[in-house]
Design goal:
single chain; mainly beta; 6-stranded antiparallel barrel; 3-stranded antiparallel sheet; UPF0066_cons_site; S-adenosyl-L-methionine
Length: 174
């Protein structure tokens, strides 16, 4: 796991972050997700599903999902099921998730075994101002609204924001 260092003078509006986190937790409980961003009223995030994973707390999750070939499932909410059409044509997917249990006030990260701190944007730490996870997974199966994948590093019940197919010709720098 990454050791994170809090940058104490980070300008933040606790009330906005607390409201967004409260809405995120309420959305998970109610299955009516939405994460508004109050400074930009037109910007919001609405999860399309959630993860069922063996990882229950951050300490359980691998540093990189691709390095730990554990299987997980992603359940897509019924209103988004039609968006899965054609997805089985791809063997790998990018999964964008909302790391809802990550710290949102860290700008510096000390990487294990590497010494000095780096800015969070120079790392893959889950602890970041907007805890958006990006993981490349292997798609194993789709049954209705359930995707079985390998290599996802998200915790159990993590909200899924989006799914995008991996295209070697455009997602790999030649």
């Amino acid at each position: 796991m990454l050791e994170c260092v809090t940058f104490t003078s980070l300008p933040r509006e606790d009330s906005i972050i607390q409201k967004a986190d409260a809405l995120a937790n309420e959305a998970l409980d109610s299955k009516l997700p939405a994460f508004p961003v109050e400074k930009h009223p037109g910007a919001f995030v609405k999860p399309i599903g959630f993860v069922s994973s063996p990882y229950k707390v951050q300490a359980d999750a691998p540093r990189q999902g691709r390095l730990d070939p554990i299987e997980s499932t992603i359940e897509i909410y019924p209103e988004f099921e039609a968006g899965l059409a054609g997805l089985m044509d791809y063997s790998q997917l990018f999964i964008l998730s909302w790391f809802d249990r990550s710290s949102r006030d860290q700008l510096w990260v000390v990487r294990p075994g590497r010494g000095s701190a780096r800015g969070v944007f120079a790392t893959r730490s889950p602890n970041r101002p907007n805890p958006i996870g990006l993981t490349l997974v292997d798609l194993l199966e789709i049954r209705g609204r359930i995707l079985r994948v390998r290599g996802l590093d998200a915790l159990d019940n993590t909200p899924i924001l989006d799914i995008k197919p991996y295209h070697q010709d455009i997602d790999t720098h030649n």
